[in-house]
Amino acid sequence: MLKGLLSVLLVLVALSSTMGKPDKAAVKKEKRVPQTLSRGWGDQLIWAQTYEEALFWARSKNRPLMVIFHLEDCPHSQSLKKVFAEDQDIQKLADEEFVILNLVYETTDKHLSPDGQYVPRILFVDPSMTVRADITGRYANRLYAYEPSDIKLLLSNMQRAMKFLKTEL
Amino acid sequence: MLKGLLSVLLVLVALSSTMGKPDKAAVKKEKRVPQTLSRGWGDQLIWAQTYEEALFWARSKNRPLMVIFHLEDCPHSQSLKKVFAEDQDIQKLADEEFVILNLVYETTDKHLSPDGQYVPRILFVDPSMTVRADITGRYANRLYAYEPSDIKLLLSNMQRAMKFLKTEL
């Protein structure tokens, strides 16, 4: 209850400061919306923060890992994100069967960029920590790119990723 | 508007499902609060997601990086987090002068655990990417640990971290 009141107060403070003449100090005082790990790819999903964390979860839960590379100012990333977040089949499968990670910065692991560091790009990783370079989209020059119209192909690729590779581990 | 209605509906669904006899299916239907990058260490601060991202920002903004290792189920981490989030001097300095990152999983970089992988543990990194192993707390057996009562020492260490090392880069 107190928390609720505080939030309302803070919003009012933020509103009143934006209604005044905007200057640098006022902008700084505005209440920021806390950043989420989902970044809009599915607020109801549990996201890993880092690749190390995601690999740990994939191993311990024996689930495939889906890594989404994207950028906030890339229109292709934004349009893919929209259909990804709205597709109930994808969201359900991601929630129930995958470990998921979305990154706006590249990792140091070159296995996650088999044909370059473009965005949007989606890679699957086996719980045995093998990057599934065999699971690709439909573009020969950017094998791991997906357009919004490829969303069902992505769903089908998620189902493929659930059939684990037989490894020697 | 539609989004607002949907949220209300979802909350109602979540409420009604929690009021019934709890079972596994009902728990799954509850609306989750999206995870934040701050994890309670300062919702109004801009947090980096990964160490790679944090290093990129530190270099490009020429700011020192503060890395906080902690765990959600560690009482020492929780009590330090509380004073950290409530200390206005720390929050202001972190906001204005630092790149900040909080992690619940270790990175693969051994430089971030000079004397082990305990929590809570706070390391500073120079924009030249040198880990400031010289900036320590008051415990000889855990050089980078801080208790809640050490919060002003942490503030003073943040001020020290702002005086960059002279490196040959």
Name some characteristics of this structure.
mainly alpha, homodimer, 169 residues, Glutaredoxin, 9% strand
What's the pLDDT, averaged over the residues of chain A?
Answer: 87
Instruction: Assign the CATH architecture of the domain at 51-168 in chain A.
Output: 3-Layer(aba) Sandwich
Strand content of chain A: 5-15%
Distance from first to last alpha carbon of chain A: 52 Å
What is the CATH topology of the domain at 51-168 in chain A? Glutaredoxin
> What strand order characterises the main sheet of chain A?
2-1-3
The gyration radius over C-alpha positions of chain A equals: 19 Å
Oligomer: homodimer
Q: What's the number of extended β-strand segments of chain A?
A: 3
Going by helix content, strand content and strand pairing, the class of chain A is mainly alpha
User: Largest chain interface and its two residue counts?
Assistant: A-B, 23 and 23 residues
Helix percent band of chain A:
40-55%
Superfamily (CATH H level) name of the domain at 51-168 in chain A: Glutaredoxin
The outline of chain A comes out as: globular
The CATH class name of the domain at 51-168 in chain A reads Alpha Beta
Number of helices of chain A: 6
Order of helices and strands of chain A: HHHEHHEEH
Q: Which stretches of chain A are poorly predicted, pLDDT < 50 over at least 5 residues?
A: 8-27
* Biggest β-sheet description of chain A: 3 strands, mixed
Pfam families (chains A, B): Thioredoxin_7
InterPro entries (chains A, B): AGR/TXD, Thioredoxin-like_sf
Keywords (chains A, B): Endoplasmic reticulum, Secreted, Signal
Protein name (chains A, B): Anterior gradient protein 2
